[in-house]
Amino acid sequence: MGNIVPQGTEGGDGDLDGLLDDLGLGAGIRRLLPDESDLLPYLLKDIPGVAGLRLRARWYGRVLGGLGEGCTIGPGITFVHPERVFLANGVRLAGNSHLEVPRGDGRIELGAGVYLGWGSFVNTWMPGGYLRVDTGTWIGAGTQIWGHVGVEIGAQCPIAPGLLIVPYQHAFGDVRRPIMEQGGSTGPVVVEDDVYLGMGVRILPNLTIGRGAVVGAGSVVRRSLPPFAVAAGVPARVLRLRQDSPAQ
User: What is the pLDDT of residues 195-235, one digit of tens each?
Assistant: First the structure.
């Protein structure tokens, strides 16, 4: 996967005091929220319609790590450490989604033309955790992705609503101790280019879904799948390879 992140932009080619005046707010709000990464989303995140899209596209370059041309940021989007979020040209974030890099040097990188559906939740969670999505991938509404030690999704992947990637497994072998105290294990998740994930797919840690694979709705993927596999079930099993069947 190549470099899909634009350089950080200055953004906001205007006077912030002028924006406050346009919104009918005084300078006192700047004393309450002196950090622009807090102030600008507070001011602009819930403005509806075309005006809100235009204002967020103009000003969020001042708080995001990178904001490419033609990005669309819907209403109700929230960020934690937005300076660790990088959006390439033409990224579309649907409303009421949350993108969070809570600690360390984690990052969220969305490549050119990526769509993240309404009400999605992305959290890199661990130090160094990340999500990287390559060009042109469509991620449906209500998706939940935890970055842990790294989640990579390739280019041109159609992903139906309700995807869940939680790359962590709790240990529970000691019946004398609460499960919450037993720790667990994690591992990277890689979804290669042109993978089709059906509605409500669940993906567990330490695996790769090969290029061109198709995973049926509601499946739980526990192990790696080869390229061009058609898989389904709980746990997901390979039913056939795409080159073994006529085009449909």
Answer: 999 999 999 999 999 999 999 999 999 999 999 999 999 99
Check if the beta carbon of residue 203 is closer than 8 Å to that of residue 222.
no
Q: Which among 36, 47, 42 has a CA at the least distance from the CA of 10? A: 36
Token pair for residue 197? 């994930």
- Decide if 245 contacts 233 (C-beta within 8 A): no
Closest CA to 105 of 47, 147, 52: 147
Q: How far apart are CA 238 and CA 222, in angstroms?
A: 12
Per-residue confidence band for 10, with pLDDT thresholds at 50, 70 and 90: very low
Asked whether the predicted pLDDT for residue 7 surpasses 80, the reply is no
Q: If you count DSSP H runs as helices and E runs as strands, how many of each does the chain have, helices first?
A: 4, 25
The answer to whether residues 140 and 161 touch, using CB atoms and an 8 Å cutoff, is yes
Domains (ranges, CATH) in the chain? Answer: 64-244 (2.160.10.10)
